[in-house]
Queue: 2 jobs
Job 1
Amino acid sequence: MKNRVGIIGVGNVGATLAFNLASKNICNEIVLKDLRENIVEAMALDISQAANAAKSKTIVKFAHNAEEFCDCNVIVITAGIPRKPGMSRDDLLLTNAKIMTSVMNDITKYNPNAIYIIVSNPLDAMVYTALKAANLDKNKVLGMAGILDSARMSHFIQEKLGYAEGEIEASVMGGHGDDMVPLANYSTVSGKPLDKVLNNDEIEEIITKTRHGGAQIVKLLETGSAYYAPAYSTSLMVEAILNDNKKVYPCAVMLEGEYGYENIVAGVPVRLGKNGVEEVIELKLDEKQNAEFAKSIASVKELVNTLEEKFFA
Ligand SMILES: NC(=O)C1=CN([C@@H]2O[C@H](COP(=O)(O)OP(=O)(O)OC[C@H]3O[C@@H](n4cnc5c(N)ncnc54)[C@H](O)[C@@H]3O)[C@@H](O)[C@H]2O)C=CC1
Ligand SMILES: O=C([O-])CC(=O)C(=O)O
């Protein structure tokens, strides 16, 4: 059977992801879809030519309509607007909920077996929206943010230490907002616990930088938000699902009792495979982390309440 990855929204994140997947040679086909027909055609040509340069066997196509965007194993949705300096991700809520709903309504019927990876922001609320729009099983719809936030934490640890590049395991859970929950005690440097190599103040500084890592890039870019690290992080999820490799990554999923929460989406470690979310891993959190996770969940809940009142009602 052919492995086919669909990407809908081929702007900064979507195009970078397509380039990354095509040059890695991990799927037979990538199909791109965007409102901007000329851009998507140009990206399909350019990325297909890159794949040929890389001697990759991946074919890159674009879809003129929803019917052609079909039979995908994995679909990544980045359609939506990014924030600009001075905005929070939450400011994108109603605009992107409208886009997410119309995208899901358009494409789900042509993709009965797909696993959906949501990237559009505000991430957790968009996973909730996608699930609600499509009425799919919760294991089939998940969001990318935790791998990115963990990579940022790892970057800031490396920056602080001045060494250990490639040897840092960092772990972040919770919603993809300013109150995400970086987990210092589940983070290591060359196998050593983080608190053995950095003191409390240094760890707090890294946690603060991680929480504001997205905004830092938005402020510098001026026109939009980060895309290389988001795209690479998404490619790891696509690869885990296509290869059924059962890797554990932090992803945004609908909680149904895990960590004591119901009917709310947040980032938690999950095992990924061909069925999407195959297991939610319940880490043991200390009192402070439990309180921080509760605060992060409350922020997502506030967005979901706004959606229920102003969008779904
Ligand atoms: N979850 C995460 O960690 C991250 C999330 N994001 C989010 O991802 C989204 C995309 O970001 P960028 O790629 O930088 O934005 P972008 O503006 O470069 O690309 C968005 C693309 O979506 C397309 N689009 C809009 N409505 C559409 C529709 N109905 N159907 C098909 N295509 C449609 C636009 O034409 C555009 O090409 C934003 O909401 C951003 O906040 C970005 C980075 C990280
Ligand atoms: O900051 C943003 O708006 C985009 C994003 O989610 C990130 O880079 O973490």
Note: The longest strand covers residues 262-273.
Job 2
Amino acid sequence: MRWTVVVPLKPLARAKSRLADTAADGLRPGLALAFAQDTVAAVLACAAVLDVAVVTDDVLAGRELAALGARVVPDEPGGGLNAALAHATAVVRSRSPESPVAALNADLPALRPTELARVLDTAAEFPRSFLPDAAAIGTTLLAASPGRELLPAFGTDSRARHRASGAVEIGLDAVDSVRQDVDTGADLRAALALGVGPRTAAVAAHLLLPGPPGR
Ligand SMILES: Nc1nc2c(ncn2[C@@H]2O[C@H](COP(=O)(O)OP(=O)(O)OP(=O)(O)O)[C@@H](O)[C@H]2O)c(=O)[nH]1
Ligand SMILES: C=C(OP(=O)(O)O)C(=O)O
């Protein structure tokens, strides 16, 4: 089974606000774009993936991610993350009703295609499933097998809400790169330690990142 992966991306000028301490206003949009480019490039390189749909209203990001090979779906609802994901899933399914669909955050710059393949192969065993983020509070991936609705509930405490919605929690070991979303400076350091893609590495080289606490 090969998946359609839906990647949501909010307008770059508003993205990654929690990284304000780490990246100045002038650098943050470029950093958010680099995260999305490295994420989408890794998804497209994954053997378990058929195609990628990026749902965004950002013109520059849409152009750059289309150049990598993603399809761009306009964020027509304009009603936030879950509305964007439900809309993109409906667009994907209107063309291919039987496609398995997985939503994946755009802030996974350390993503490795082989680890994503293991997660998606596991997701194929369940009607709906999800992968908790590295902090074990949120969600980085939510998957729906053919014929199942995605029913996205991303946002605060989404791990608990996805579990309560009946989605099966994927408990695989050694899929850190699929779980390591980057919301804070500490997350960015953790992603750099795992090894990020080339676009994120280039932008991060311009940031003054403090070392781990206690050094
Ligand atoms: N298309 C779309 N994507 C969104 C929207 N809100 C958030 N996203 C994306 O959903 C994922 C998680 O988003 P958030 O954690 O809410 O936002 P963020 O920009 O990553 O970080 P913060 O600004 O620090 O909250 C990221 O890939 C975002 O770009 C939205 O309204 N529309
Ligand atoms: C939207 C989510 O991600 P983030 O950690 O980026 O807020 C989430 O975990 O549901």
Note: Residues 28-44 form the longest helix (17 residues).
